[in-house]
Amino acid sequence: MGILFTGGMGFLLTATMGFLFTMTLGIQLTVSKWITSMYSRRKVSPLNSVQSEEFLTALARSSMEASDQEKLEKDALIINAALSSDMIIVTQDEKLKRTMEKYPRLANISSRITWVNPQNDDPAVFEKI
User: Fold this and answer.
1) For the segment 43-59, what is each residue's pLDDT rounded down to a tens digit?
2) How many CA atoms lie within 13 A of 125 on its CB side?
3) Rounded distance, CA 24 to CA 69, Å?
4) Between 43 and which of 18, 38, 73, 75 could a Cys-Cys bridge form, CB atoms 3.0 to 4.6 Å apart?
5) Cβ atoms within 10 A of the Cβ of 5, count?
6) Which of 41, 39, 18, 40 is nearest to 29 (CA)?
7) Could you tell me if residue 128 is inside a domain?
């Protein structure tokens, strides 16, 4: 099971116990210490990893260019977080969505995600999500 972390500065991170993260403030905390802090501030939502496996399976079964494979593996945490939670990704990176739409198995998953680009989309979109 993964854990979804959200913070006041708008960061999103999924994690598995036992890793060391460097946060944007440059503070290094072990996950166990950080999780305790996040639980006490009610910033933790347990995620179901069943849908996440769907993306990883589709990624593994799709034959694709090496650059596309690398891009999707790099952004797998973002996609898994969306699939395991509210099915929304807010990003300025249009390449991720376009890359997923090139491959039928991944296009099926991408079509279920609500993609929001804060630079290009109408501000009314944010009221709906």
Assistant:
1) 777 666 555 678 888 88
2) 13
3) 27
4) 38
5) 20
6) 18
7) no
Q: Please indicate, yes or no, whether residues 29 and 72 belong to a single structural domain of this protein.
A: no
Tokens of 38: 């996040």
Residues in a beta bridge with 8: none
Q: Which domain holds residue 14?
A: 3-46
Q: What is the pTM of this model?
A: 0.59
Same domain, 12 and 58: no
Pick from 65, 100, 67, 68: nearest CA to 82: 100
Cα–Cα distance list, 49 to 85, 90, 106 (Å): 10, 20, 17
Length of the chain, please?
Answer: 129
Task: Give the number of domains in the chain.
Answer: 2
Asked whether the beta carbons of 122 and 95 are under 8 A apart, the reply is no
User: Which DSSP symbol is given to 13?
Assistant: E
pLDDT tens, residue by residue, 77-108: 888 888 888 888 888 888 999 999 999 999 99
Residue 125 lies in a domain: no
